[in-house]
Amino acid sequence: MLPPLKHIGRIAGKHGYKGTVSVALNTAALAKEIKKGNFIFIEIDGKGVPFLIEAWNKEASLLHLKDIQTEWHADMITGLDICIEEKNPVDTAVQEDDDIIGWSVKDAEAGLLGTIEAIEDYPAGPMLMVTGKQELLIPLVDEWITKADSALKTLHLKLPEGFTEI
């Protein structure tokens, strides 16, 4: 079964004769989400078909995919929509950061960390103020969120190793 996908743009055209294509992204900020070694999904007949990213030039929006090795292959995918895996399929009931105040926070390794008391804005980004066994200030980083469960009012995280020992 395919993971949840996020539409990010389309294949704009071919670039050269070795299968490299130019990409038109919905927003420039999406360029940082495309990484060599990850998969990009091309929408073919309404289904997301995965292709391994062999090279990505974010400045020029040029993409080279495994199995797209010729001009002919590039022509075949030109104009098709592209998607990436939705990193954190967060519950749609969570619309604003403030919606999670009062929720429990669980880490994949450390278990229950406490309750979100507030979300503070810092220059580096929003931080969760969590009180429990100890007070923690946890950066609200999308990559660390594994699940947001509105039914149980629990935010599941996978924090870097040793984070709660600081």
* Total number of strands: 12
Q: Any idea what the CATH architecture of the largest domain is?
A: Beta Barrel
With strands numbered from the N-terminus, the spatial order across the biggest sheet is: 1-2-5-4-3-6
Write down the CATH class of the largest domain.
Mainly Beta
User: What is the count of structural domains?
Assistant: 2
User: What's the Cα radius of gyration?
Assistant: 20 Å
What's the CATH topology name of the largest domain? Elongation Factor Tu (Ef-tu), domain 3
Portion of residues within helices = under 10%
Instruction: Label the structural class.
Output: mainly beta
Helical segment tally?
Answer: 1
Shape: elongated
Flag low-confidence runs: 89-96
CATH superfamily of the largest domain: RimM
Q: Approximately how much beta-strand content do the residues carry?
A: over 45%
* Euclidean distance between termini CA atoms: 39 Å
Q: The biggest beta sheet, please?
A: 6 strands, antiparallel, barrel
Mean pLDDT, nearest integer?
87
Listing every helix as H and every strand as E from the N terminus to the C terminus, the arrangement reads: EEEEEHEEEEEEE
